[in-house]
Amino acid sequence: MSAEKHLLPPLVRRIGLRLGAALPALFCVILFTFIMMRVLPGDPAVYFASGPNAGQAEIQELRHKMGLDAPMPVQFLHYLENLVTGDLGRSLTTGQSVARDMQERLPASLELTLTALALSLLISLPLGLTAAWWSGSKYDQFVRAFCSACFCIPPFVSGILLVYVCYYWLGLAPDPTGRINIFLPQPPRLTGLLLIDSALAGDWTAWHEAAGQLVLPATTMALFVIAPLTRMTRAAVISVLGADYIRTARAMGLPTWRIMIVYTLRNALMPVLTTVGIVFSTMMGANVLVEKIFSWPGVASYALDALVSSDYAPVQGFILLMACLFILVNLVIDLLLGVLDPRVSVE
Amino acid sequence: MNEPLLTIDGLRVSFTSDRSSREVLHGISLSVERGKVLALVGESGSGKSVTGLTTMGLLPKQAVVTEGTIRFRGQDITRHVPRSLRGAGIAMVFQNPRAALNPTRRVRDQLADVIRAHDRLDRAALQARLVELMHQVSITDVSRCLNAYPHQLSGGLCQRIVIAMAVACSPDLIIADEPTTGLDVLTQKSAMDLLLRLTREQDMGMILVTHDLGMAAQYSDDVAVMRHGEIVERGTPEMLFSNPQNNYTRRLVAACPNETSLLEAPEDAAARQESGPAVLLEVRNLVKEYQSGFRAVDDVSFSIRQGECLGLIGESGSGKSTISRLISRLVDVDSGEILFNGTSISSLSAEDFYRAPQRRQIQFVFQDAAGSLNPRYTAFRSIVDPLLRMGPVPEGDALAELVVQTARSVGLSEDMLERYPHQMSGGQCARVGIARAIIVSPDLLILDEPTAALDVLVQAEVLALLERLRRERGMSYLFVSHDLHVVRMLCDRAIILRKGRIVEAGRCENIFHAPQSNYTAQLLEAIPHFRPAACV
């Protein structure tokens, strides 16, 4: 309890500092995407004019209505002003506000990514640990080959293959369309993560349904990141195995499993955790292929659709969201590192 | 029960790779009795650590026992040491105690892991055992130490914890592998006294692996001198060190600094003293405070004359390294003044000092000879680098000529210059470090424990080299060390530091023969030494 008393104030200060330091970066992200969207070819006013035969006057009027005729700095200030009030603009494709679209779709992406991440960790950690433990053996070679294979197959190929085998051929998996059977009653929305919501509501039919829908896309994504995570775990474990304290543990006759888990894996987790942060962010972005294949109503496919149709607001909102998520994930990783390694919090 | 506790008979160990096999132990035979200490002495690479690791069953995968037997309490453990024996039958104390402990686990849990690996104890019994262990290793601050992580404890405390771990399951044999390397004399003494006391009290046997002859002499009942994987001589310490039979042992004993060894004739030193050359470096009221408010250096003043060697002695944390960094201007001074050749250099910031003309006049030789060389530079590149940066760079062939000449003056042959640090021995790396520092002809050389990581024979060579260079080039030295004998051999005057303050300063012979302060007397007392004359 006394440790907590000492821990809290610097912890809060560290969070504050990190978030504060992220603000300039966020501003740059906003500015950059804003300019990029306007430099890229394509005029939303033309795109959204009533038809291909719309006259110049109609487009001009639309442009005025959308504020596109104002000078760019003014547009940017206007955009910033809206951002501060929480208004991310309105999507021209869906007709809803971007904030609302995001709120609906982000949980879907998060649920998919988090499940995939958990799945890949569940495979990578034991695989990397054992490969390092018996490094140089046939088993180690096999793991290396497996990782290369996983990494070589792009997600859209592995995704389609999985659908073909598990759904079309074997009929094991449900049809790859969305998160949950739309004819089923939806669990009350609390977190937006279907697995958690249905579990909270005690609706286990819905839970199974949602879990079943999740298996294939999550596996597809997990396959893609198993390689970096396993390789990182293996490398970290090998360097820890060379440490003096592992030799001490062996000399003192500690049981092998304890040396493996408590002494080795525990100390090797730190670089792995840092990699997890990077991998998670990549996954959020790389989601788009998987979301497309499995008709997953996530944010990435939403942003891609918007980008194709020169719909500024959703793209800007998406990138801003990703930037914030990236900062948050890294902050969480940073704090976790402090928990994992007592030496970090001292400095 | 006539059989000794441990018998090693004709042990041969080879390191094999796909292509080749190299034998590192060529038939070692030794035995350890209960309640006795056997010291294995030798230079690095002599096979003394491999002997310890083989006994423990901790050899790396590529090493195999090709011949011979190891018997412990009558049981053959040559090729397999059962887990129940490791820790509970034979335990090991390692060097570098802090690294030997798991950094992310509390001391309490690590000790409990060891106990529970061999004993089923309930919570209360475990706690009682932990407290008992702490008392056994003379730790008074029990709850703080148990709840701490290793990095929160001093090196001395960590070593006690490592010892506590080793005795936790009452083993019959302890193998102590350089147990005090990296600890200062006072801590070393208390750790060794503790190990010896436990060995005697619990009637254990101990194998003490060390390169320090003094320690072997003081703490062991039997000594085996090893070289190139063989035992060249063995006997009681008195016999061995007062009347060594083997040529190699004789050289080792001679190279080991003791209270009478000297590098130069005394009249030389006296002559230099009388000429009284000008003061080169003057330090006035130096203070360095770290952010936490800890005063690493607290009001320190001294001076060094031209051609003089000043020794800086202190335990770890005494501020001796900070002082050397302050003077070499790698760290900023908080208050006080450093005058070099009459000009103040303390006002320049450490970041800009590399541009000052004094940079090339003050050079540094670092402690870790191999680690302070760029692993991707050849010896030539390392030596020439400071010259290229600080000039003046001689034209054409003269540059290479100068490097070769400098290398030769530190005893490096020309063909060594193309080697990388990993292709050189510790002594050769140390020579490169010295050559790199003197190539720009500095006036002041700061030597931060330059021989701490070296074997005695190599240390003797490097010390002789330093002494010769000083006489030939008229350089001044600030020699930082925790080895009092080495300081006495090389230096005219010495300063004893403690907690950032000067405890005692003066001419070496006065400090060593008639110490004024209690602390100095304690330090002198703590050095393990063999007295060949007194032993007979």
Automatic annotation (TrEMBL), chain A:
Gene Ontology CC terms, in alphabetical order: plasma membrane
Transmembrane spans: 21-40, 112-134, 146-170, 210-229, 268-290, 318-340
Gene3D superfamilies in UniProt: MetI-like
Subcellular location(s) of the protein: Cell membrane
Keyword Cell membrane annotated: yes
Gene Ontology MF terms: dipeptide transmembrane transporter activity
Domain ABC transmembrane type-1 per the UniProt entry, residue ranges: 106-337
Topology relative to the membrane: Multi-pass membrane protein
Pfam family name, one: BPD_transp_1_N
Keywords, in A-Z order: Cell membrane, Membrane, Transmembrane, Transmembrane helix, Transport
CDD domains (alphabetical): TM_PBP2
Similarity comment: family membership: Belongs to the binding-protein-dependent transport system permease family.
Protein name: ABC transporter permease
Organism, scientific name: Gluconobacter sphaericus NBRC 12467
Organism placement in taxonomy: Bacteria, Pseudomonadati, Pseudomonadota, Alphaproteobacteria, Acetobacterales
TrEMBL record, chain B:
Membrane topology: Peripheral membrane protein
Organism superkingdom: Bacteria
Location of this chain's protein in the cell: Cell inner membrane
Presence of the UniProt keyword Signal in the record: no
Keywords noted in UniProt: ATP-binding, Cell membrane, Membrane, Nucleotide-binding, Transport
Domain ABC transporter: 8-253, 281-524
GO biological process assignments: peptide transport
Any one of the GO CC terms: plasma membrane
Single GO molecular function: ATP hydrolysis activity
CDD domains: ABC_NikE_OppD_transporters
Principal location listed in the UniProt entry: membrane
SUPFAM superfamilies with a match to the protein in the record: P-loop containing nucleoside triphosphate hydrolases (SSF52540)
Family label: Belongs to the ABC transporter superfamily.
Name of the molecule in the record: ABC transporter ATP-binding protein
Annotated source species: Gluconobacter sphaericus NBRC 12467
Classification lineage: Bacteria, Pseudomonadati, Pseudomonadota, Alphaproteobacteria, Acetobacterales
